[in-house]
Amino acid sequence: MSVRSFATLFRPSQFFSIRGGVHPEGRKSLSSDCPIEDMPIPTLIRVPLQQHIGAEAEPVVKRDDVVLKGQLIGKARGPVSANIHAPTSGRVIAVGHFAAPHPSGLPIPTITIRTDGADSWGPRLGRLRPENASPEEIAAKVAEAGIVGMGGATFPSAVKLNLRGKYALHTLVINGAECEPYLTCDDRLMRERAEEIVDGIGIIARALGVTQIVVAIESNKPQAIAAMQRFDRALGIPLRVQVVPTQYPMGSEKHLVKILTGRETPARALTADLGVVVHNAGTAHAVHLAVRYGEPLISRVVTVSGRGVRRPANVRVLIGTPVAEVLAHCGGLTEDPERLLLGGPMMGQPIQNTRVPVVKGTSGILALTRAETPDLDTMPCIRCGRCAQACPVGLTPFEMNARIQADDLDGAGRIGLLDCITCGCCSFTCPSNIPLVQTIHFAKGKLAEQEGRKHQQEETRRLAAARKAREEAAAEAKRQAMAKRKAEMEAKKQREAAAAAATPQPAQHGEPLQ
Amino acid sequence: MIEAAVSMSALGLGLGLLLGVAARRFHVETPPVVDAIDAILPGTNCGACGYPGCHGLAEAMAEGSAPVTACTPGGRDVALQLATIVDTGSDGAVAGMAETEPTVAFIFEDHCTGCMKCFKRCPTDAIIGANRQIHSVVVDACIGCDACIEVCPTEAIVKRVKPKSIKNWYWDKPQPAFGSGNGGYAA
Question: For the 4Fe-4S domain, which residue ranges apply (chain B) (predicted)?
Answer without folding.
Answer: 29-88
